[in-house]
Prior knowledge:
By secondary structure, this protein is α/β, with parallel strands linked by helices. It has one domain (5-249): TIM Barrel, CATH 3.20.20. The chain has helices at 16-28, 47-54, 80-85, 96-101, 106-118, 131-135, 139-150, 156-159, 180-197, 200-205, 216-223, 240-248; strands at 5-9, 37-41, 59-63, 90-93, 122-127, 163-166, 207-211, 230-233. Helix 11 links the parallel strand 7 (207-211) and strand 8. Helix 5 (106-118) packs across helix 7 (139-150) and helix 11 (216-223) runs parallel beside helix 12 (240-248). The site of 2-phosphoglycolic acid has 13 residues, from strand 8.
Amino acid sequence: MRRKVIAGNWKMNNDLGASISLASELKTNLPELGENQLIICPPFTSLESVNEVIKDSPIALGAQNMSKQDSGAYTGEVSASMLKSVGCEYVILGHSERRTIFNEQDALINAKIRKALSEGLKPIFCIGETLEEREGGITNQVVKRQVVEGLKDITEENLALIILAYEPVWAIGTGKTATPEQAQEVHKFLRELLAELYSAPAADKLIIQYGGSVKPDNAGELLSQADIDGALVGGACLKSDSFVNIIKSA
Ligand code: PGA
């Protein structure tokens, strides 16, 4: 049995004070995690302070993006070593908002994943199709391209450090969740693809999260699907009670 991994993507929400409050509430109300894992991804400006809040708890810290560069004249960018120095263990890469709003392409995402791994950060690697692509019947083709390109030159040993997050773009922030069956179908396809690209044992071990309008009232059913190993939660992680209820359904 694979463990479940729940991650909260705060996106561009919560200034320093609000971040400290949310992290503190979460820590206070944290349910028993058992083998399961919990990650929160605050904005850059709150990482160090949130790390102070959660450091004696089982909550792990992640960032929402990272540069592929080590250092230098890249105004506004943040490097892997900077993220590590404030306590990050994880970093979300390839989120659909980065792909669409900031025009991040597969090759750049692949470079970022490789950089993160070489610096000892674990990527939460996001993929997913748009509504147009789903309606055009090319969901599998799209996620396959994203996986193949995103994981280019990544070894099986390093794959074990990656969390894959399947997030259909049409379900993100829209209140439209993929049905558990729709999500399971893609997750199964992804696991079979990974078995082909790497090996059956590697695919079997891989954590594949679902993301896109996960809420307390749909988390249980999504997380009970055979190939859904966790959730990447946006909107519903911004209130500690709804996030705690999602964690409890894992
Ligand atoms: P959402 O966001 O839960 O608000 O749909 C998920 C995500 O973007 O990771």
